[in-house]
Each structure stands twice: as C-alpha cells, then as structure tokens.
Amino acid sequence: MSFGLIPAALLIGLILGLFGAGGGMLTVPALMMVGDMSVKEAVPMSLWVVSLVSLTAAIHQQVWKQLQYRLLIILGATGIAGSASGARIGAGMSESLQLAILAILILTVAVWTGFVRLENKVSTFRYIPAVLAGFAIGLLTGMLGVGGGFLLVPALIFLGIGHFPTAVGHSLMIIIANAAGGIISYSTVESVHIDIGLTLSVALIAAVGSIIGGILLKRLPAARLQKGFAILLIFLGGFIAWQSLSVT
C-alpha cells in the first residue's frame, strides 16, 4: 500500500464519522491519485471501504438508539434496488461522464445544504418522497461509486430529520445497505477485480478515523457541522469537476 494512502484513509474515516457523508467522494479520488488506479478500479473498491467504515462508525455511535426504523427500511430497500441497477449502468459509462455527474451533484447539494435551516427535531416523514429518494440515491450510489451520504443527509433533513447527528446516524446505516447492493452487482461483472488486501488495509485505517469523527460529532454544535458539511462539498465538487476534465 502506498504510504500516501494512510493519511488519506484516516481523513476518509474522519469525515464519514463526522458528517455521515464524504467517504466515497474522498475514497475514489484518493485511490486514483495516491493508489494509481483508474475509475473502474477505484469505484468497486470504494464501495467495500465505505461499507466497512460506515459499519464501524455506526457501531461506535450506537446509532440504533436514534433510528426511525420505518424510514430506514424504506430508504434501505429502495436504495439496494437502485444501487444494483446503478452499478450496471456505471460499468458502461465513461470515466469523465461519471466524474462530471458526481461533481454537479456535489455542488448542487452544497448550495442547498448551506441555506437550509435545521429545526433540531425529528418529525414524521413522507412515504412516497422517501421511496423516490431512496431509489434515486441508491441508483447514484452504484453508478458513481459513492456511499450516498452527501445526498442522504440532505434528503433525511428534507424528509423530516432536522437533528444533524440523527441524520448522520441514519445516513451511515443506509450507506451500508446501498454499498452492499453495489458490491453484489459488481461481483457479477467479470472485468472488475478488487485487491482484497489493499481494500482491508485502507478500510482498517479509515475505521480509526471514523471513531475520531464520531467523538467530534457529539461535541460540535449542529450549526458548525452544517456549515462544515457545505464547505466540504464545495471543495470536493470543485476537485472532482477538475478531475473530470483531465480524464480522457
């Protein structure tokens, strides 16, 4: 494993544990730039890393104490279906198109997140929007190789979870389900090969970062977390947009 992947993996886990998002968005470019992989190699490996790290963060944060299980089941089930379909679509897309779509989505969500007001409460969600949101996010998860957290957290806020740490907890659980759907679908693609040793090494280091992020999540105010999340997305979106232009 490249030495540069060690701090990158720590940062991936830290951001995932703190925001319930960003892991996949960081993992793909990190594997490409530091690990010298192509998008086609980085995307399926990213799904493995993100799922394992999200599981670690969820256990550490004891998210089962704050979950709305009806919402979780709906988003999880539709997310798995969407992720499996998205993985097959993503396998046939060009690398530059995958990155361009990802950059546009990230920047759009960053603007929305920066302006929405958190009500610091959890209210009843709406079923039909939850079904549509779950499938759409799962589709993008499989297609773009991201955990979906950067879409899940804003979606959860929109669906009625205005408490940021609670939205993060739900996001972690749904990321695990969505990534699992993508992993299963990619396992049927003969051209996709994953370095198991490297994947586990990156995931283990990132898991340590996720525990640190979980500790910070409990100590920082929601307003700062929200602003930090929006700023993170702006930087990531700009970087990936630049990356999409450099891919031939």
From TrEMBL:
<comment type="similarity">
    <text>Belongs to the 4-toluene sulfonate uptake permease (TSUP) (TC 2.A.102) family.</text>
</comment>
<feature type="transmembrane region" description="Helical">
    <location>
        <begin position="71"/>
        <end position="91"/>
    </location>
</feature>
<keyword id="KW-0472">Membrane</keyword>
<feature type="transmembrane region" description="Helical">
    <location>
        <begin position="97"/>
        <end position="118"/>
    </location>
</feature>
<feature type="transmembrane region" description="Helical">
    <location>
        <begin position="196"/>
        <end position="217"/>
    </location>
</feature>
<protein>
    <recommendedName>
        <fullName>Probable membrane transporter protein</fullName>
    </recommendedName>
</protein>
<keyword id="KW-1003">Cell membrane</keyword>
<dbReference type="InterPro" id="IPR051598">
    <property type="entry name" value="TSUP/Inactive_protease-like"/>
</dbReference>
<dbReference type="GO" id="GO:0005886">
    <property type="term" value="C:plasma membrane"/>
</dbReference>
<feature type="transmembrane region" description="Helical">
    <location>
        <begin position="42"/>
        <end position="59"/>
    </location>
</feature>
<feature type="transmembrane region" description="Helical">
    <location>
        <begin position="229"/>
        <end position="247"/>
    </location>
</feature>
<keyword id="KW-1133">Transmembrane helix</keyword>
<dbReference type="InterPro" id="IPR002781">
    <property type="entry name" value="TM_pro_TauE-like"/>
</dbReference>
<feature type="transmembrane region" description="Helical">
    <location>
        <begin position="130"/>
        <end position="161"/>
    </location>
</feature>
<keyword id="KW-0812">Transmembrane</keyword>
<feature type="transmembrane region" description="Helical">
    <location>
        <begin position="167"/>
        <end position="189"/>
    </location>
</feature>
<dbReference type="Pfam" id="PF01925">
    <property type="entry name" value="TauE"/>
</dbReference>
